[in-house]
Amino acid sequence: MLPDVKLAIRLQSIDTRIAELMREIAALPKHIAAIEKKLDSHQRKLEADRAALAANQRDRKKLEGDIQVQEQKASKLSAQMHESRTNEQYRAFQHEIEYCQREIRKAEDRILELMGESEPLERNVKTAEAALKLEKAQVEAEQRQARERTAADQKEVAELQRDRQSLVSGMNPGVYRNYERIRASLGGLAIAEAIDGRCASCHMALRLQFFQDLKNGLGVMYCESCGRLLYYNPPAAIEDLAGASAPSIST
Description:
single chain, 2 domains
C-alpha cells in the first residue's frame, strides 16, 4: 500500500474520532439543559402544590374564625332573647340565631371539603419533596460527569489534532488537498476500501483494469463513481494468520 494512502487511512480514522468527540461535546450541554428544564418543571409543580396547600390552610383558618364569630354572636343573641319582652322581639332574636347557626353549618361543611382537598395536596407535596431531593442530586451528579467528560473529550481532541498535524506534514500536499475536498463534499468520509472489485462506500463495481492497478499500487486512485480515495487491503496469508508457517498436512 502506498505511503500516502496509509497516511490518509490513519487521517480518516483520526478525523472520524474527532468528529465523534465534537458531537459529544456539543450534545452534553443540550442534555444537561434538558434535565435542568425537567427539574425546573418539577420544582414549579411542587411550588404550585405548596401554594395550593397554603391557600387551603388559610381558608380553613378563616372559616374557623368565622365560626367563632358566629358562635359568639349566637351566644349574645341567645342571652338577649331570654330578656326579650314581647313575642315579636323573641322571634326576631330567634331568626338571627338561626341565621348564625346556618352560617356555622355552611362554614363547617366547607371546612370538611377543604380537609378532603388538602389530603391529596399534602401527599403530593411530601412525595414531590422527596423525589425532587433525589432528582437534584442526580442532576448535580450528571452536571459533574458532563464537565469531566467534556474536559476529557477536549483533551483527547487536542491530542488527536497534534497527531493529525504530524500525519498531514508527512503527506503529499496534493493528496491531502484532495482528501479534504472529498471529505467536505461527502459527509466526512473521504476514503473507501475496494472489496471484491467494488467500492465499499458507493457499492459500484470497478473496472477490471482499474481494480488491478489499485491492487498493484500503481498510484493514488479515486473511485470513478463517488470520487473517494480507494485502498485495497489484500487478504492475510495463512502464515500471517497463524503467526508462523502453516503446518504440513500428513496423510
